[in-house]
């Protein structure tokens, strides 16, 4: 088997085809094997013949499992598998081989006629002996008080989503993952155990192989390289990260090489994505004409040809017969056009992923290397993501000395749509809905008209303006990311180990916006000849951690203590320019820019630095293997850019205890209960600072008057600015029933209080900070308390058929406990309020009282409960029992395995969340009715006395009220995957293939929601012309050689 | 064991190399407050920074809510509720100026507070005085603009606006209009003594500009003799533009009679964008037919240099689109349509202020004669073949002065406040009100007759009182 390594550059088109061809051949080959399987069924015989079985034990990914115990009929004697997963054992035909391993579920396989056998083990995620990886310590689960959830490669790999955090949606109880856009490669807002900060960061800390990496930039990291993701939720684990840990820590471990011969894995999948249906519909041409006519009849306003040329228009009768004839002709010919603008802006996007990995190792050195290629088109035309990634991990193991080098190189190109979410005419995502159905961008001669061009169109050209922008602009970001880590450890004497680690996370982003001088929008640029801009952003994080660990077990005592010293450094620099006066023969290059006083380019840039020094101590003591106690202390010093000097140093701590009840005498003999553990912890952490020098009342140089240099005050500042502390209590229980841990339950309850919380106290206009001007206070207090559980069980458990169902959920209750010395409430943006006693994210709006059936007036509730037709936001706004942040999130999984066929399903759900549906404001607003409107404006509008209408009389202005805050709960069939593993017995004959799988899957197949906008899943405060998440279908293969 | 030694050396060496100095990262992109105003040069930067946020927001708001502009059918793109008098405390179009002027005031106050700490030499003393005077006058001007827009009335007992005499994070209440007028007067008098007469940059506040501000303030305060005095000071120092120069003023090719303007260069926001959107070539607001008709017959329009300078007639625009456009702010650079300096004070206005003040200040014929002379002098400077008119009585002449203000100061941010000054309703013609869904007349009793205080301010500042009926 020849392995194709992708070539880049000008040859990549050819290499892509080659690759396609190869995949096809492999598929054919696999199909051939399947047909072989049917032709030659394996028979069973009951005759006892002692023979030697040679087998291989692999995991669900086809990687060999070393150290698994293989016994015959559960006898005391048995063998252990070698590094390559192979074993040899004597058994009789009809005997059961029992294969067990600490990290996997025990598997029983009947010995058949053959001498060779391959056994696949399923990972036991909640296994007793599993370790909780925190980045500083690795305590076994039985001795750790931590509330942590681990997700394994099986749930992460092959999912057709390019950003790792999006894959975690619905997998971790208490962790909400809400995407920011359907743009390929876009990240998601990840919130663990409720939002813990108003103005600080609410994003968890991400640690990859011990190196902190930036959140929100995962598009260059290949999820295929991930072995496990551990989500640390409680203080006992988070406090190790001190001032950065309060939002939870996500610890990512990548795949490592294993001892044994060279192994090659290849996987490939192809697919496509499609647009989902929104909860509203726009008018078609017939409806639009009727609408225009009705508006004319009701108000006399001319909003389009449907009224202008209508025979019902009084003006019609007054005109000449020729005019009337012409008017009829115009309406008739416009009526022939019925454009569904979605067809012009959206597409079915193609998808392709290729991945190859090589791993090998001996006693001393093990290595894992992988190359990935990802090409995805978005559902919006001209958008997409291409990714090239390399992962190289090498471990050294020379007795007392161990070391590892982990490298991730990634390069991605994202193509965006210009001004997504914008409401201006010409924003492509808004034009889809603004455009009139009787508009078409091209005249019959095929010429494109972005504006009227003197042609006398009867439409607004709003759709065509969007088309002009769609093709006349390009918006791209190239990202180059390097994550490099080196760690070394040396065991001085038994149990005493010193270690050091150095790492770097470097990202270079290049943003490019090109506006073609030939396009209409190009002619509207400064100087009228297009524009070209580039931005360069570089973010560098360095980490250095050194420490010492002592571990000892003496009789009934077992303890471990560690001390670390850590230095973190961040450097960010940005630079951007925009030039004008382009030559259309030189597209997408700065060489095209003219620099003169007529074409004045713009320049900007910034720099920032921050650093942190930390001393960390942590320890664990376990008595009788039952009672464990942990404690940690971290002393963090932040750089001047974060806090005033007087608040620089602060200590963070945690204490925890766990009781392994199963080890107690009274439970040891109870077979029914296989695991029972009780855990509790308490500690203090902090959340990181959002920006630099917020506390300092600074001045900036970036202002001018009449073209001359000037300075202006920038920050208001606050000399008492301090850290934001989070105190968290956690109590939990792990329970597994039956000897195969057939039913597993994990329950945790927590109470998390954020003190000294950053609040931007709005200022009176007279303070001179401008509209929205604020001063940063560290004065607020907020609580998040909740309960989370995960329950999974095998409904059916036998050799050929296994059916597992799992559910996990987290319920979080948020409450503001304090705002500041001077106030108990603050406006939070335009639509929300921060108020003591209410959850953060509570909406604040006048209550909508419906439409008066008598006269069609819009009605609002006054605060005293009376109803009025006068709108007054200031006097009528009340806090709504609706909040931007979800109360309940979770997922439901089922896995059905029948022989070699498995069907995996993931449903994810988000409940108790309301969002501001701002799209209605544009699509159902008489102020914008010259643009197209939703069908409700035609059918559900008040027209005559007695109408019980949803929408008010057409001349009544539309105001922001409680009806704009809509339920955004949803349940989504997130992933459905059908996998066929070609039987190992068949593969053995090929000599080279160790495992082969064929699969098909669908992503976001169906969404249950009452949300009226485009996509209920979006982390923006409003839904408005955003890029909706796509539905995806893919098919692929996964081979291991 | 060499490996062990190297390793220990490495890890502990690394540990020792770290030090606390690594945490002392100074601001790289911000100016430390202690270094903001070190010397006279820094003061110059601060002064310019104070002028920088002044914008045309109020000029635009006045045009949109008054009868000088009309909403053409082609404007399907902007929020038109302000034009239809549907604004309330949440409408940014009329509330944003409240924030903008306080930004300028705060910056001026910060510069003023830095004055005592600036080392001066006899050579730089006059510059420092000038900066101090400019900032005092700018502070007074901004408060006056706020007063014009947000006072509950212009009567002495009306609710004024908080007068900020220092940089302060507070929650001030509303003093009376009279208190505002007193503070404005004090600041302007102090400023006038400080700004040297030799300083003549009309993008800054000069001594003449202070007289002009004083004249306008006196008009609103109904201090007629002060208004005459200050207006005369301006007229004496800055004569009216010759007819040939008048159109050039609006192309920024002539500084004639421009007492104070806000300089605008490429890259700055364009005042013309409020009336015409280049993208899509949409007339957002057109000159009202009421205004156009005030200029009289076609022949009379041709004689008046103001008509073609202010209003463009474009009969070739497609059917259904506005045939009239606001020409005043098209500017002189065709590549940057709408980019023009914002003229805040011109001598023309001073003639009209003096005329009105004379009419009110003198009883009987003396006032009428003096006022009529100023009005005729102004018209003669604007209209070819003009024949002086005589006026028989005060009300006729007052109407004539008001009509002249309507024409002369069109789109310069006066009309709405001029009507408010005399408690007159805003009235649109039927022709102008085709797209206003019935917004034809705004009575002085309506809430919208005063701009509302922003809802945000109401929520934050518990001492603030909203204007009546909102």
Quick summary of this structure?
With 1041 residues, chain A is mainly β. Chain A has 17 helices and 50 strands.
Q: Keywords, please?
A:
heterodimer; A: 1041 residues; mainly beta; 22-stranded antiparallel barrel; five-stranded mixed sheet; 17 helices; 50 strands; 12% helix; disordered N terminus; B: 470 residues; mainly alpha; two-stranded antiparallel sheet; globular
Task: Walk me through this protein's architecture.
The complex is a heterodimer of chains A (1041) and B (470). Chain A is built from 17 helices and 50 strands. By secondary structure, chain A is mainly beta. With 470 residues, chain B is mainly alpha-helical. In chain B, strands 1-5 form a two-stranded antiparallel sheet. A two-stranded antiparallel ribbon of chain B has the order 2-8. A two-stranded antiparallel ribbon of chain B has the order 3-4. The termini of chain B are far apart. At the A-B interface, β22, β23, β25, β26 and β30 of A face α1, α2, α4 and α17 of B.
